[in-house]
Design brief:
CATH topology of the largest domain: Rossmann fold
Strand content: 15-25%
Number of domains: 2
Helix content: 25-40%
Bound molecules: adenosine-5'-triphosphate, magnesium ion
Distance between the termini: 42 Å
Strand order of the largest sheet: 6-7-8-3-9-10
Largest sheet: 6 strands, mixed
Structural class: alpha/beta
Length: about 260
Amino acid sequence: MNSTIIELRNIHKAFGNRKILKGINISVSKGETMVILGPSGTGKSVTLKHITGLLTPDAGEVFIHGESISASDDKTIEKLRAKMGVLFQSGALINWLSVYENVALPLREHKIAHGEELDRIVMEKLGWLDLIPAKDNLPGDISGGMKKRAGIARALTSNPEILLYDEPTSGLDPVMSNVFNELILRLQKELHVTSIVVTHDMQSAYMIADRISFIYEGEVLLCGTPEEIQASPNPVIQQFINGRTSGPMILDHSETENKK
Ligand SMILES: Nc1ncnc2c1ncn2[C@@H]1O[C@H](COP(=O)(O)OP(=O)(O)OP(=O)(O)O)[C@@H](O)[C@H]1O
Ligand SMILES: [Mg+2]
C-alpha cells in the first residue's frame, strides 16, 4: 500500500521580492520518514510552516490526506492540525508553564484527555525523553538540550499520525540524539507514524530516513533513499553531505536571492 498522506504540489513563496520557494514538490506516504536536507536559509523551515498552515503559498497547494490545507477554512485547518505533532526550530516552549504543563498542552488544547489519563500520557512521554526529574521546572531553568527534549515530548503527546520536526537533534548530545533516532524508528514501526524531519545531522538523517529531499535554491534538487543521495554525482549534494568548504554551493544565500 502506498497512500499519500502529505503532498506539497508546486509550492511557491516569496517574502517581498525575495523568492524563497520556487516550486517545491514533496510527497510522503503513510508510515514514511522523509528527511529534508539543504543549506541554511534555503527554505526548509518555510516549507514546514506551509504544511502546518502557518504560511500560505503564493502558488501551489498542500494536501493532507487529500484535503487542501491552503484552501481550507480555519475549522478544517484546526482539524488537520490536531493530527500533527510539531517541533518548531526555536522549541517554542511557554516560559511561564512547567515542563509538565508544556507537554500536557496539546492534550488540553485539543481536549484529548484529562485527569489520570492525561497524567499517564504526559508521564509516559516525559519518561521517553528522560525528563521526569525536570517536570516541575520552568523552561528558563533547564538546559538547551532539555528544552529541545521537552519540545519533542510535547510534539508526541497527542499521539499524532503526522510528526513534523525542525532540527530535533541540534543541541542534543550524541546519546540523546540516538534516543530521538530510536524513538522515530519505533513510532514508525509500532504506530506507522508519518514523519518529516528537517535536520543538518547527517548521521541521524541516514539512520531514520526512508527518503531524503534535498532542497537547494528553492527547489527539490534530488529526492531519494540515503543510498541514492550518497551516490549522487551532483556536486552540490556531494559538497553538502561531506561538509566541504569549497565547491559550487552558494553559501551566502540571502545575497543571491536579492540579486534575482
Ligand atoms: N516570515 C518571514 N518574512 C520574511 N522572510 C522570511 C520569513 N520567514 C523566512 N524568511 C526568509 O526565508 C529564507 C528561508 O528561511 P528558512 O527559515 O526556511 O531557512 P532554513 O532552510 O530553515 O535555514 P536554517 O537551516 O538556517 O534553519 C531566509 O532567508 C529567511 O530570512
Ligand atoms: Mg530552519
